[in-house]
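task queued by scheduler; priority normal; single chain, no ligands, no partner chains; default sampling; output format set to structure tokens
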Amino acid sequence: MTTRRDRRWLRVAIPFAVLVTLITGTLLVHAAEQPDPADADFLSPASSAGIGSSKLADRLRRRGVAVVRETSTAGALAATSDGDATLLVTTPGLADLDRLSRFDGLPAGTRVVLVGPEQAALARTDWPIRQDGEHLWTTAVIDAGCADPVATAAGPAAVGRLRYATAPCYAGALLTTTWGGLTITAVGAADPFRNDRIDEHGNGALAAGLLARTSRVVWLDVHHRDVQPSPSPSPSSRSTETPFAGPSTGQTPRETGAPGDPGDAAPADRAQGPDQPNPLAEAFPPALWATLALLGLALLALAAAAARRLGTPVAEPLPSRVPADETMLGHARLYQRAHAREESLDILRAAARRRITAHLGLPAGATVEDIAESAGYQVDDVREVLAGFRPDNDAELVSAANAVQHLVREITGFEGDQP
């Protein structure tokens, strides 16, 4: 009895456990999922949503830094033409980084801050920045670990999602490099710039410190593909073009995690970086892949709970003949396990009525009154045996079955064990 109760309890508990697991997994995936850069609120200085950046923009204004919002790469280039500006690129995968990295693009002395640039976006530039490894599922909080004054003042910050080669700050999650008169900073995560994360750890101090080094911040707020197709160079211009060897002043590029840290880099490093990711995989949002994974897990759980392979049942011949008494006993056990007392008694009564009507020469659809009249019994007595009593337990079922068997014997004179 205890084993049967345990099995019944498991039948109820397993589906609930699977449901709780799916809900928990969904919540974890939702917490780990990064916001979509195509969302108009993502790191927008005009948005007060959780993924917006209105708090950071207000902090910069209180520090005397002008915030200029631009919604196109061309507008951002025009806004930085006066110099003494920091260009914040919140969506490097959507902005025209190729245009920004040209010599005639940004004026010398401009600072560029890239938020979470991946290798696919960096490969469109000549900047000596390469992604190191794959991105993490969640953003990690990391100590500064370098001599950069902004990072040191900010302390631990949530930037550890993407890492970049030769970056000493935040275990590779913050890289500052100079190239062609520009100072370029790559930040490994968007958390320090978000409204719902800026007050955690040293996020706010790091984001404001990176942007407040000039009197103006040109905020490139792009949420659609802004890459402009460039004309193909002619064969003559292609043959006379000289490789990028740095600015005409003879300045050599260097990568720095803090001012003064040495480190040479060449444009050839970009060609040696990892292969670009599959564009088909990037065409779908991460939520789609998470949903497909959860659906796959749900199907596996359903198959395990059903304890059978997916598909329709397959009919197979029995390996041997099964004796009738074993079949009867097996059916009886199934009815007993299902507590189908009324159904079992109905089967016995139907068999008894068929035998009695055949013995009395009555039609198959004869009523209880017809049977009682032909057999010479009281109608109420026959009805009680063949159609009235409903058992509530196994003892009453046995008593009712005996009554049916006794009635058949009295009417037909049959002395067998079954009606």
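post-processing summary
- The chain has three domains: 2-31+291-306, 37-227+251-272, 324-412.
- Residues 324-412 form one domain.
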